[in-house]
Amino acid sequence: MELAAVRRWPELEHRPWRRFGARTGIRWAYVLSTALVGCVVPFFGALMNLIGAVAITPTTFVLPCVLWLYWRRPSARSLEFAAAMCVAVVMTAVGVLGTISAFRTIILGE
Fold first, then answer.
1. DSSP code of residue 7
2. pLDDT tens across 62-104, in order?
3. Residue 99 and residue 106: Cα distance in Å, rounded?
4. Cβ contacts of 61 within 8 Å, gap of 6 or more
5. pTM recorded for the entire structure
6. Closest CA to 99 of 54, 47, 39
7. 52, 44, 54: which is closest to 106 by C-alpha?
8. Which of 5, 19, 44, 62 could covalently link to 58 via disulfide, CB atoms 3.0 to 4.6 Å apart?
9. Phi, psi (rounded to 5 degrees) for 17
10. Sign of the CA dihedral with 44 first, then 46, 47, and 51 last
11. In the chain, what are the domain boundaries?
């Protein structure tokens, strides 16, 4: 794979360290700005919990199961259907409970 990339973009072989300083500086600035926001915002952890419950849980666990059921269309009595539905229902409940917990933490300021 690397040889194919070097053949396609030969400049990669000759200048691997050219932009090292700029990339390192940008990465450090990003990490420091994220840490600063995390320290300044008093409910940053609860905000991350809310984002995880609302966005990450459905797209990681629920949506793949639902799309698999839509595309594959297994029999309603099959073990595959039951397992996919079980994962989708349980993770939907986890997402709802996580959202409630995050809102509670933000509102009460714990």
1. H
2. 999 999 999 999 898 999 999 999 999 999 999 999 999 999 9
3. 11
4. 87, 88, 91, 94
5. 0.64
6. 54
7. 44
8. 62
9. -105, 5
10. positive
11. 1-40, 42-110
